[in-house]
Amino acid sequence: MYSILTRFLLLGLRPFSAVLASQSTAKIIASRDGTSIYADATGNPAKQSIVFVHGLALSGIVFDNFFANDRLRENYYLVRYDARGHGRSGKPSDAEAYASVHYAEDFLAVAHAFRLNKPVFVGWSLGSAIISDIVEHINPLPILGAVTFAGSPVLGPEILPKLISPSINDVLSAIFQDSNVTACMEGRIQFIDACFRDATQVPFDLKATYLGQTVVQPPTVALLSLQRTQDPTRLFAAGQAGTLRLQQIFGDADRIANNSAAVEFVKPHFNFLTVDTIPAGHAMFEDSPERTVDALTRFIRSLPRKR
């Protein structure tokens, strides 16, 4: 019996990863302040669009496997971008470049470049906080709904320490270390392992891909990406009015985020809050992709239709 790869070769076709690449559109987009933002899209442009942003020190590459999911590709237009300071996007070294308004401008630049109309925004971990930036600085509300993968839609000194599992504090401190290369690299390796439910079962090439993304981000820039000030007033007002519906998806074996703290923080501020917990670690879209797709698509189908 022919293997799947042999069948592709005999038919003159390419493996699915190559097909995915050939059907994707990648762009380098200039944000309002001139910072370059890398973005790409795949799926069905005629369908509901979903914008994804990754977590700390990583890039949109983390969604490679998730974007290859047939159910997502056939039924949605999938867009992802590298947040400023990360991956293939620009990495300014001054603190002002990481002000809240610039994160909103980056999202808007990507939405305009791909002609998106009311996308659903999905942020993983640190990327979830961009939800607050968007709602605070863009009016009218440019998103149909918001989803956090293992995160909170807002940062802040009163919540950030509570969102992080105490067991990961030393690892995060090492990531920001710019005077000890050995400690910094060891911290990044431990951080990547902590993203998964059972790192010993994760293929080496996947962990190496994750680790490689962290290397292109200077420690000082990693720290700047955590330090911006946000005003959640408009976010909470939209949540209480029901104009913004929020979903939080968590892994039950998350070793990085404090899931219960994230829920308790936002719960009083959202009349329409959906919480799903699935058997997975911090990167639930890698550990349990089908369950993640189930939860995400169920929420999107529940959203009011675009006007």
From TrEMBL:
Domain of life: Eukaryota
InterPro entries according to UniProt: AB_hydrolase_1, AB_hydrolase_fold, Carboxylesterase_BioH
Taxonomic placement: Eukaryota, Fungi, Dikarya, Basidiomycota, Agaricomycotina
Name of this protein: Alpha/beta-hydrolase
One Pfam family this sequence matches: Abhydrolase_6
Domain AB hydrolase-1 stretches: 50-295
TM stretches of this protein: none
Coiled coil: none
